[in-house]
Amino acid sequence: MSFPESNLTYKILKAAAEGNYAVPAFNVYHTDALLGAIRAAEELNAPCMIELFPWSLHFHGGEFIKFAVEACHNAKVPIAVHLDHCLKEEDIAIALELPFDSIMVDAGSSDSEQNIAFVQSVVDKAKLKGITIEAEMGRINGSEDGLPLVDMEELYTDPEYAAEFMKRTGAHFLAPSFGNVHGPYPEGGPLKYWQLDRVAKINELCPSEVPLVLHGTNPIIQSLIDQLINSGVRKVNMNKNLYTHYRTFLAENAATLEMTKLQEGAVEAFKKGAMEGLRITHCDGKYAK
Ligand SMILES: [Zn+2]
């Protein structure tokens, strides 16, 4: 099979497009979350993704990334491993030497020609490694664990320009900016700020094989997710909400349980949050063996 059809992220998102559902991409920070996500996906027969931040490249190092990839690729369901928000060129260089399935590049420059040239060069290099690329267009504001605070004027993705950008860069997946922000929303939340028509228009104008990616899902609202799935959103990034059960479990038990029981319980608690995420995006039961 030729690239990008051979790429696991590409395959998972293509199957999601064909079945009109999405998959969660779980931000994991440690083995508790990694194991919890894999077990949730296996139990629900759900394809999905896990994602790491560039923070992991430095804090954990490459051996941990290889372990995560090995664990995901040996799961009973398809689970791709993605590097989320890779901002720096030196991190991209490190990531391309690791077995990631896909990488998100943040095109930081405000100059559009420079952005196109930059993303295109990353796409070309990644292709040689069999890695697909998610590109951000516009600017998704805010902050989340593992990411620096981005304090720039919000730039919405222009549908016509997005189509041109995707064609010219050859990037595989698009993360649009349509009023979604990282971290807590101002009063009114996603219901007030998300411009769903903008996403529908982006989906209409972009090449049909380009899946859209949703960032900024805190809080996550089922009816909005359902509408976005109908507008071509196939990957839904999940971070903070996922850890609610996990944090509660740790807060109640960290001081008393023995370490083996503490970790088993923590994995189970994360799994509970991950299962909710799999159901919200409707990928549960979608993996046909
Ligand atoms: Zn994001």
What do these coordinates show?
Helix content is 46%, strand content 16%. It has a single domain (8-280), classed as Aldolase class I (TIM Barrel), CATH 3.20.20.70. The chain contains twelve helices and ten strands. The longest helix is centred in the last third of the chain and has 22 residues, at 259-280. The strands form two sheets. An eight-stranded parallel beta sheet has the order 7-5-4-3-2-1-10-9, sandwiched between helices. A two-stranded parallel sheet has the order 6-8. Helix 6 links the parallel strand 4 and strand 5 (132-137). Helix 2 packs across helix 12, helix 7 crosses helix 9 (196-205) and helix 11 (244-253) packs antiparallel against helix 12 (259-280). The chain is α/β, with parallel strands linked by helices and 289 residues long.
Uncertain spans: none
Give the number of domains: 1
Instruction: Tell me the CATH architecture.
Output: Alpha-Beta Barrel
- Largest sheet, described in full? 8 strands, parallel
Helix content: 40-55%
What would you call the shape? globular
Broad CATH class? Alpha Beta
Structural class: alpha/beta
